[in-house]
Amino acid sequence: MGLVQIAEEFAQQVDAASSPDELAALLDAAARAMDFRFFALTHHVDLPRAPQPAVRLHNYPLGWVDYFDEHRLGPCDPVHRASHLTSVGFRWTRLAAMLDLTTRDRDILHGARRAGIGDGFTVPAHVPGESAGSCSFATADGRPVREEWLPLAQLVGAIAFEGARRLWGLRELGPDQRPKLTDRQRDCLYWAARGKSDWEIARILGISHDTVIQHLKQARERYGVGKRTQLLVHALFDGTLTFVDVLRR
Amino acid sequence: MGLVQIAEEFAQQVDAASSPDELAALLDAAARAMDFRFFALTHHVDLPRAPQPAVRLHNYPLGWVDYFDEHRLGPCDPVHRASHLTSVGFRWTRLAAMLDLTTRDRDILHGARRAGIGDGFTVPAHVPGESAGSCSFATADGRPVREEWLPLAQLVGAIAFEGARRLWGLRELGPDQRPKLTDRQRDCLYWAARGKSDWEIARILGISHDTVIQHLKQARERYGVGKRTQLLVHALFDGTLTFVDVLRR
DNA sequence: GGGCCAGTCCCCAGAAATGGGGATTTCAGC
DNA sequence: GCTGAAATCCCCATTTCTGGGGACTGGCCC
User: Fold this and answer.
1) From edge to edge, which strands make up the β-sheet containing A117-125?
2) What's the whole-number average pLDDT of chain A?
3) Cβ–Cβ under 8 Å, residues A143 and A159
4) C16 C1' to A236 CA distance, Å
5) What is the pairing mode between strands A133-140 and A117-125?
């Protein structure tokens, strides 16, 4: 069976999974099939204090997990930090080239090795507005990473992360929970998000100041919020606006 | 040659490419190899310090590009909006399920069809705090998307995006140029994002109204923006805040 | 025709945010 | 012991937003 067929089958199984445990089992099997020993799919947060729900699935040795949590490595683990710098998977051997490794980083990598974790490959996964995350695969210490599996690992990691997003309900909005804005309301909100005042928006759209106020007023009503900031967050969350829209020059 | 071999070869070629034109040629060839006709790699950037040209590589028909620009569709293209809601590639047929399509959205999709663009597949890509974008592949109108190529399209899209980041020099800017907020600034922003007024935040945090104003003032300065809305967008984009934080009840 | 909705415009009063000045304390790092 | 950053507090004036009232047009659907 070709690698891509494996990826497709994996995707179907992930789609069918209905619990984090099932997803973990699928990842465990996939990791082993690719000659890895460990997997770790996680949001990069300080888990002990993070607001739920943050994603974390793995089959790392317990000793390592305890160490990790005790030292609050979520946000500072070098593998996680490196995964914030790229959009495709990378081998851990490239870490030193991607980051300036500090003494502490080296300690962390050493600690992992002592816990039995060998070489690895990490697939970053980011969705704007959500915690940064990644899906890593690692060999048992002493065993090499098999290059020929890495493209598949990239696919499997991405698919698994998206599956986790679904299972954790990170973007669930009830059937008709999504308020709809009119085109004009969205126009106004778009410029408001870019930091324009109502008066400036009026000039940009060629309508009166009062009309802009009116559109934004109604947009707030539709989302049931009273503040421009909340309106913006909701619109970004449900895809009415995107970061690209708002941040682009 | 297996699909994964194609991906590996593509990755090597992208690594070797030394100009956007070369990358475009590689993408054109890859798209055709996957039975697509068009590709479009758009890469929108937000780097307050170093103004970067936005990346746009594509082989769309000129008529469509003109239409797109004339009507200033950039900010509202539904494909771009959807690409911010997921971490894996999606077929355009799923757009309606991912977003509420407005009349204008349907017009855009119609316009694309009239310009000869058929069905497509879009791979989102995001690096927190730095850039977001996507790589799309589309068939000529009337031709179906070949499902069996989509896993490869996912790989090719991701590799191409990362190649564009390299070619546009985005990776050399150093990781930690982006603004960091102090704990207190983040506390204030967190509550501001949830719609609290400065006065309410002061009561919640047990500090004076003026101090809250001060923290938010300095937070705006760090991001180089003048409005609360912009501050919020930047913080969400680079992961300082997440939707989970802000929308959780 | 009547109802509904999007879009446009107008008014007002009060609350909130922004941009400018200041200031002190505490604590970590050199 | 000095420096710098963070956190705290205070004042001012101005702009901007929010919530409350209205009104008129042009489509669309039944």
Assistant:
1) A56-58, A38-43, A133-140, A117-125, A90-91
2) 84
3) no
4) 23
5) antiparallel
Is the distance from CB of A7 to CB of A155 less than 8 angstroms? Answer: yes
Q: Which of A67-76, A93-102, B194-203 has the lowest mean pLDDT?
A: A67-76
CB contact under 8 A, B132 and A88: no
pLDDT of residue B170: 66
* Sheet arrangement for strand B55-58: B55-58, B38-45, B131-140, B117-127, B90-91
pLDDT digits (tens, 9 = 90+) for B102-145: 666 777 777 788 888 888 999 999 888 777 789 999 998 888 88
Please tell me the distance from the alpha carbon of residue A44 to that of residue B197, in angstroms, as a whole number. 30
Instruction: Tell if the CB–CB gap between B54 and A242 is shorter than 8 Å.
Output: no
Domain A3-167 identical in fold to domain A183-247: no
CATH number for region A183-247: 1.10.10.10
Cross-chain residue pair B4–A152, CB shorter than 8 Å = yes
- Give the nucleotide nearest to A229 (CA→C1'): D17
Classified as helix, coil or strand, B42 is: strand
Chain-chain contact of B247 with A234 (C-beta, under 8 angstroms): yes
More confident residue, B195 or B74: B195
Mean residue pLDDT across chain B: 84
Report d(CA B241, CA A187) in Å as an integer: 25
Contacts of B124 in chain A (CB under 8 A): 127
Q: Any residues with CB less than 8 A from the CB of B115 and at least 6 apart, and which?
A: B60, B61, B63, B64, B67
Which pairs count as long-range contacts for B53-57, CB under 8 Å and 24+ apart, including other chains? B53/B168, B54/A248, B54/A249, B55/B20, B55/B133, B55/B164, B55/B168, B57/B20, B57/B23, B57/B24, B57/B27, B57/B164
Straight-line distance from CA A182 to C1' C17, in Å?
Answer: 27
A120 and A91 in contact (C-beta within 8 Å)? yes
Q: Which two tokens stand for residue B229?
A: 């809305």
Å: A87 CA to C19 C1': 39
Q: What is the dotted CATH code of the domain comprising B179-247? A: 1.10.10.10
Span A200-221, average pLDDT:
94
Domain chopping of chain B, boundaries: 3-173, 179-247
Give the number of other Cβ atoms within 10 Å of residue A226's Cβ. 12
Q: Residues near A84 by Cβ (< 8 Å), separated by ≥ 6?
A: A44, A124, A126, A132, B127, B128, B129, B175, B239
Assign domain B3-173 to its CATH architecture: 2-Layer Sandwich (3.30)
Protein residue at shortest CA distance from C1' of C15 = B197
For domain A3-167, give the CATH number: 3.30.450.80
The pLDDT, as a whole number, for residue A217 is 94
